[in-house]
Design goal:
CATH topology of one domain: Serine Threonine Protein Phosphatase 5, Tetratricopeptide repeat
Helix content: over 70%
CATH class of one domain: Mainly Alpha
Strand content: under 5%
Oligomer: single chain
CATH architecture of one domain: Alpha Horseshoe
Order of helices and strands: HHHHHHHHHHHHHHHHHHH
CATH superfamily of one domain: Tetratricopeptide repeat domain
């Protein structure tokens, strides 16, 4: 009988182990998806093709694995500059993730935020970055927290809160040094380098970006190395350091051509065209712009397409081809359409400003004046609106701080009331204790007294 029971227990235990193994296997990643996770930054094109080769398996995957699928795909599209596809995959992944507290969900918040940032949707991007960072902190994942701080700093810098952004980046740097993770250190050095370059601290910027480049080189992340170049070259271009910008853009173009990377070929060509325009080397500018045109279909951002046409308008104006320049301005405005976030509305001012200059070039001064008047009016209106938004933001922050102070006072008052009630209860208990003690003492004294009285009672005589 005992042996039979032992056999039954063993069978039940075996069945339980099998079921548990199957349950764990159901949410485990297929080997090819694990390969994508490991090699996505080294071979993004090959890993994208590997995922597409397994597209037919998607329907049979459990939801947690589907979330990882969308997360990895969105990151691959990010690396390849396909931000519209990145946005779509991140949205799909978040819709499946629900409220699950996982690393993949935090990364999807970051990925969707970056895709929106590329579309200049900074407010929405900032909100997603905050959600991702909060989840990373809840998960206590240090590398995810560092990524979140970098995203946070980017939005702070976009809002011209440079001092706050620098503090955030320094916190990220300290965490990355403590973590001693190459990936995090490379990313933090790159962002800090750009910040120092924007603040005109050239030596610090160059040192940080070179360190970032070295770390990405050790990791084998070629595309990230090239983007470090591009960002540094763009910074030099805005600072009118043309020779440094030309040198880096040219190096970037050669690398991109060897790698046959159409997105990076486009950006390198556009950068070279822009710098040559500033140097008044218009033949070279036109040649590089024509090369960039060949890869225009690779862009998935309306803002980037608009920027491309405005850059062409500047070149045509420099060449004296006013009609072609006006066509390009119209195309630039058409690409942005009716988008109404604050950043894009400020960017749209460039269109009327360029039109007014083009009208003046052709002696159409009345048109130039009217267009310039519209430009000034819109500019002042946007400034007033931006100031009002800043006032509202300050008011909301003040209200939030005041409410927080009220909540703290209320909490302290509740704690004080609780202490008072506890004290009253303690006093009541002490009173009952003393009453009980007094009663017990009285009872003992009464017993003793009765005993003594009984002892003293006279004995009857015989």
């Amino acid at each position: 009988m005992i042996i039979k029971k032992m056999k039954l227990c063993a069978q039940l235990l075996l069945l339980f182990c099998i079921l548990l193994t199957k349950a764990m296997a159901a949410d485990s990643l297929p080997p090819w998806l694990e390969q994508v996770q490991k090699q996505k930054n080294v071979k993004p094109e090959a890993m994208l093709q590997l995922m597409l080769d397994h597209q037919a398996e998607y329907g049979g995957l459990p939801d947690p694995v589907k979330v990882v699928w969308h997360n990895e795909l969105s990151q691959l599209y990010d690396a390849l500059g396909r931000h519209r596809d990145q946005l779509k995959e991140a949205q799909n992944g978040l819709s499946l993730a629900g409220e699950n507290k996982t690393k993949a969900r935090a990364e999807l918040f970051y990925s969707l935020g970056f895709a929106l940032e590329e579309q200049r949707e900074y407010a929405r991007a900032g909100e997603l970055y905050r959600k991702g960072l909060a989840l990373a902190e809840e998960l206590k994942d240090e590398q995810l927290i560092i990524d979140g701080l970098l995203n946070k700093a980017a939005i702070q810098a976009e809002d011209n809160n440079m001092e706050t952004a620098m503090k955030t980046l320094k916190e990220a740097y300290q965490r990355a040094v403590k973590l001693n993770n190459k990936e995090s250190l490379a990313a933090v050095n790159a962002e800090l380098g750009l910040m120092y370059a924007a603040l005109m601290s050239d030596e610090e910027a160059r040192s940080l970006l070179q360190e970032s480049y070295r770390l990405y080189d050790e990791l084998g992340w070629e595309k990230y190395k090239v983007w470090v170049w591009y960002n540094l070259a763009e910074t030099y271009r805005y600072q009118d350091k043309h020779e440094q910008a030309l040198q880096i853009f040219d190096q970037m173009l050669k690398t991109a051509l060897r790698a046959e990377d159409p997105v990076q070929i486009y950006y390198a060509s556009l950068g070279l065209a822009s710098v040559h325009t500033k140097l008044k080397k218009f033949d070279a500018a036109v040649a590089y712009m024509e090369q960039a045109d060949k890869y225009l279909s690779q862009l998935q951002s309306d803002f980037q397409l608009s920027e491309h046409h405005l850059e062409k308008a500047m070149i045509y104006r420099a060449l004296g081809q006013t009609g072609l320049a006006l066509q390009q301005v119209d195309l630039a405005a058409e690409k942005l359409g009716n988008k109404s976030n604050m950043s894009e509305r400020f960017y749209k001012l460039h269109f009327d400003h360029m039109r007014s200059r083009l009208y003046a070039d052709t002696n159409e001064f009345e048109k130039a004046y009217r267009t310039l008047d519209t430009f000034v009016s819109d500019f002042l209106s946007l400034q007033d609106e931006q100031r009002e938004l800043q006032v509202q933001k300050l008011r909301l922050e003040f209200d939030a701080e005041r409410q927080l102070a009220r909540n703290e006072l209320l909490q302290k008052d509740n704690e004080l009331q609780a202490l008072r009630l506890q004290e009253i209860e303690q006093k009541r208990q002490n009173q009952w204790l003393w009453i009980a003690l007094l009663g017990s003492t009285s009872l003992v004294l009464l017993v003793v007294l009765l005993w003594q009285l009984r002892r003293r009672k006279p004995q009857p005589t015989a």
